[in-house]
Amino acid sequence: MSATNMTILGFLMYKPMHGYEFKREIQCRSMELWAGIKLPAIYKALPRLEEDGYILGELIKGDTSPDKKVYEITESGKKYLRKIVLKKLFDMSQPKGFWLALVFINGVIKLSEFKDALEQQYEFYYNDFIGKKEFRKNVEEQYFSLPFNWQAMLDMGTEFSYYNTKMFESLQRLLTYKENQEIFLQE
User: Fold this and answer.
1) Which pLDDT band, with edges at 50, 70 and 90, does 58 fall under?
2) Residue 105 has pLDDT above 90, yes or no
3) Considering only CA atoms, which of 55, 110, 99 is closest in space to residue 80?
4) What are the pLDDT digits (tens) for 84-100?
């Protein structure tokens, strides 16, 4: 269940697209950088997803431009996308998977499912932050005798958990607005 497959299927939930449009959408969102989505992987995945029945491709003849294959998502593809999104939302081992899945939740999952994932992620990072903070307090006297790279990793890990906790609190707050709940499937 790859991030590449989720990205392709997620974009196709919005509209049919050809290869260059995927490239443009990925680049304008800087997804190569923050999500690790690589363009060669997109082009490699398209025929496989078509062969598996998750997308349909139609060759469009160009008058003055080259022919291009335009893809659309199938019902099977929508079910597969839902499965991938839910897996990524609940996976604590891949933090960026949650944020990438968040991009593609529109019309894919229910509000209650998203709230459950959000609560689970929040609790995980909150407990991790508290644990790191407690550890830091216990080693305070030895902190400056630790090697520089250990100090940096302790600080970065603590900050990472803290800021993830704050982002999840922000998402919970945004979900209190009715208009932000309209993107979810009906319960």
Assistant:
1) very high
2) yes
3) 55
4) 999 999 998 888 889 99
* Alpha carbon distance 114, 79 (integer Å): 16
State residue 159's pLDDT score. Answer: 92
DSSP state letters, 104-142: T-TTTSBHHHHHHHHHHHHHHHHHHHHHHHHHHHHTHHH
pTM: 0.87
For the residues of 142-183, what is the DSSP string, one character each?
Answer: HHTTS-HHHHHHHHHHHHHHHHHHHHHHHHHHHTTSGGGGTT
Question: Residue 54 phi/psi, 5° resolution?
Answer: -85, -25
| Longest alpha-carbon distance in the chain | 73
Start-to-end C-alpha separation, the chain: 25
- Strands 55-60 and 17-18, how do they pair? unpaired
* Amino acid identity for residue 83 in this structure: K
Reference 81, options 61, 53, 123; nearest CA is 53
Percent of the chain whose pLDDT exceeds 70: 99
Q: Identify whether the C-beta of residue 136 lies closer than 8 Å to the C-beta of residue 143.
A: yes
